[in-house]
Task: structure prediction
Amino acid sequence: MSREIIAEVYPWESRVAIVEEGRLVEVFWADQNENVGKIYKGKVKDIIPGLSCAFIDIGLAKNAFLYAGDIVAPGLKKSRNIFDLVKTGQDIMVQVKKEAFSEKGARVTGDLTIPGHFLVLLVYQNEVSISRKITGDSRREHLRRLVEANKPEGVGVILRTACLEADDQEILGELQELLQVWEEVQRRFENSKAPSLLYEDIDVLERTLRDYLDSDISRVVINNVKLKERINHYIREKKGGAHFRVQFEEGDLFEKYGLEKEIRRALRRKVWLKSGGYLIFDQTEAMTVIDVNSGKYTGKDDFEETVYKLNLEAAVEIPRQLRLRSIGGIILIDFIDMKNKGNQEEVVAVLRTELQKDKAHTRIIGLTGLGFLEMTRKKSRYGISEFFTDECIACNGRGRTLNLFALACEVKRKLANMGYTENSEITCEAHPELLQYIENDARNLEYIKRRTGKEIKLVANPELAVHDYQISTDFKP
Result:
């Protein structure tokens, strides 16, 4: 499998795309205020016993919320009564699990993890777990003995898939690095006042490299020369040399490589398949239902063979869409009914194989009584729908509209890549609501002016739809 990483980094956002066999399979997005993975010393502000949760002040605009089941500390026994676990005014160490979103504050956990390339340190556990993708019994047993013999008591470790080809000294060296990080976090907790930041993970680009740095990568493309050198340094440190190239390219890379269109398609409910069939994605609070439809595909063989081929194509596309959309939780797939049991098993086998490419943990449960294929996927981050769209106020949230903050980022990206024009001024016309998001970001507008060497003129046009904008170099009022 050939894999590419394409990254765009701007002062206001970073976007990293994973492309496999020429197709976008995952996209990671982070703004300047990304908090997931950060560890804070917080203070318990309020306890809600009816919901078994506490609100924690970690210094953000909204208090974070902590479920009773996520409260972990040395010697602390599990309890259904949250008052047995925390008290109002208490200092507590927590890690951000999910970003604040809409009216919700960030979700935090006391089950702290410190990730590396080979290992994940579980600071309040004691078990050694090994990635399921490391399948050889002898290798698994060797890795288990290696880590158990060298880790301290009261600390757990997950051995990631990268350990499959790693030397023992590389693994033990990273274990010592992670233990030193944890010692420093504890020291900061003792010496700082709440709320305060104790630890932050590397940025979204290095985090993606850490998770995907393997023999499948063919190249990394980035739009920033300084970051290219930083990536090369990171690779030399972690791998002692690279088997792929890191290249710098100017311009809007997501647009250049067709990724912008892929992202927009992933916001739609319907996904067309090459055969003419299509998938329908319906997401609810409880679960996601995926319906496979024949559409324009009629086939040349008998009905059973036609349905079999269509279901096989769907079994390949669905795992890609789950990764791209970052769909998690309970998932029901309504494949078109097949009478041949062998065909059914083959479709499930293909689905299982494609799911193995997913870094998130997935599990196929089996067929329900109504014939749906039931599976689960662990969700660790918000999907592109949550990032790039809002609930529609006109239809009381039954539909979604493009998020103006995300659209403003798109406008700034396009302006920042227009330095090639001959005119000395670039004009952006937009609806006043959208324009406000751009005008309020004076610092990054200055960056765009310096980068392009052009004057940026912002013109409010109430006649444009709120999600429309026009960029030109020959504007006439």
Remarks:
- The mean pLDDT is 87.
- Residues 147 and 314 are 41 Å apart (CA to CA).
- DSSP finds twelve helices and 26 strands in the chain.
- The first strand starts at residue 3 and ends at 10.
